[in-house]
Design goal:
3 domains, Rossmann fold, Serine Threonine Protein Phosphatase 5, Tetratricopeptide repeat, six-stranded mixed beta sheet, 462 residues
Length: 462
Amino acid sequence: MAIQGERIRVLNDVEPEEKGAYVLYLLQQANRARFNPALEYAIEEANRLGLPVVACFGLLDGKNGFPEANARHYAFLLQGLAEAKAGLEKRGIAFIMRRASPGEVAIDLAKEAALLVLDRGYLAIQKQWYGQIQRQVKRRIVQVEGDVVVPVETASGKHEFAARTLRPKLNRLWDPFIEDLKARPVKHEAKGLGLKGEIDVSDPDTVLADMTLDREVGPVKRFVGGEGEARKRLKAFLKGGFEGYGAGRNKPEAAAASHMSPYLHFGQISPVEIALAIREAKAGDDDDRGAYLEELIVRRELAMNHVFYTAGYDSYDKAVPDWARKTLAEHADDERPHRYTEKQLAAGETHDHYWNAAMREMRETGYMHNQLRMYWGKKILEWSPSPKAGFERTLRLNNRYFLDGRDPNSFTNVAWVYGLHDRPWQKRKIFGTVRYQSENSLKKFDAKAYVRAVEKLCAAEG
């Protein structure tokens, strides 16, 4: 299938360099060798120009590492990159990995390239890389979106108020974007180019051991990185967990989650590939399909919209709406029956047995069910010395322990706890008119069964 024109942006509109030795693809957000629009576009252009394709990746660590990333995140990333490297090379594409920023790697390798192809992410640091590349690379630069179903600017030209305002726009637009993407044949294999990478990611454990990074939060056994594992999990979900998803998705003990979020976060599977699989699934009914697509497309792309159109999306003063900050400020001095330090929260040392279990799942396995994430975040607001301190704590804990932390969903979900994409509710202490969540919300599911499941999962981590 053709790559939709709305996914393609020309950042430097010059003709491809006639003396270029290859087409260069900066593989940084879409870390996969299949169902990758940017990669397939690079192959199309290379075939047209009679050139091979070189994919590159810049690995950051130490003081210049990706913000808040630790051994847990890098282990999963490297597992995925090892598989991507093997998949690319099997297709006749070279893969070069260097210990440098993505911008530095692309700028250097682009000197011998006919043109440069970028994939796309929406975080501030990614925008910085693209800006640096655009300023310094004197070659044709084309960016191809592969991380959302409907490109952000196509869906909306402004910051959306809530899911209810973005949903109808996406519903009208998404059908033409949910199409299969076939692998293009590589007509010119990348052999004999003489290019070398500093890092051989074929052995991800060795690469991880050689990195300078935060190792206090270690890798998990619950999730293994890579596009093959992502597709395996998706297939198992559609076979055994998707039927009844609409009714069971808010019940953590029901095992109705697909666990695709870490793989989407690291670009190891395409949201379009997932959407196609959901639409074509033999199990489930229209309610199940609708509920899943709501999460995959509407909610996830609302987060992309928020991050794209909000400067300072990680800041309490910028990300939280005025009405919410005002009402929280009015109740900042309200008596708080329970207060905990960030250290106590991280250790799960509160009076709330179920909150502690959720924190343990997050801390030890890198995941927490969405139903518990809402409760978890609201309680941190309630137990913190101020709303702003609560926001900052929530974000730090979220980004430190979750495999899928540090992405648009995370920044948006944390801000939602404090009023983003919501409306004023009945006034109460501490929260003002920001939505409150009490222990009664735990009655909507079998909380004791959830705790037992967490105990089992954590025991498996060893």
